[in-house]
Amino acid sequence: MVKYLPLLAAGFVLGSIPFGIIVAKARRVDLKKVGSGNIGATNVLRSLGTIPAVLTLLGDILKGTMAVALGRHFGAGPFLEGLMGISAILGHNFSLFLGFRGGKGVATSIGVIALFVPTAALITGIVWIASVIAFRYSSLGALISFSVLPFAVAFLDNREKLPAALFITLLIFFRHWDNIRRLLSGNERRIGQRE
Prior knowledge:
It is built from ten helices and no strands. The protein is an all-alpha fold. The chain has one domain (2-185).
């Protein structure tokens, strides 16, 4: 396990890259001072438009996938691959480059599960798309779809990967606690809705 600590650290650093901040800075915008202040694609869409949001989304997804791929390349096995993915998500959520602050981790989590548990990821993605189309809330789509993830892994994938899937789901709920309260109070903004 000790020999994999540098890999886990690399996963955290990789996850820490704040693509939303980088994309916004290229447009001379401080993303933390506009919209919700979040560094993810939803706030980039709300504040800067579609193309910057797509670039942010792809960057955040890719760093999650790359972390799992790195673990796989070094023969880490399912458990440590999951830890690599979680390290990247934690890096996004608590970025080294932003004073250990960060985003919600949805796109990076999608990138992780796309390689880690591809069949379950497909189910999760379909549920996310359906939820977002139906309700127009990014946060609610994430909460519903990642609630499905552990069940999809349990029934469709390697059960060795279930602890990582459960932890990822818990992280999503933890990072969306404020969104949950706003959803319950009716104050959550819909996708594309500006202040």
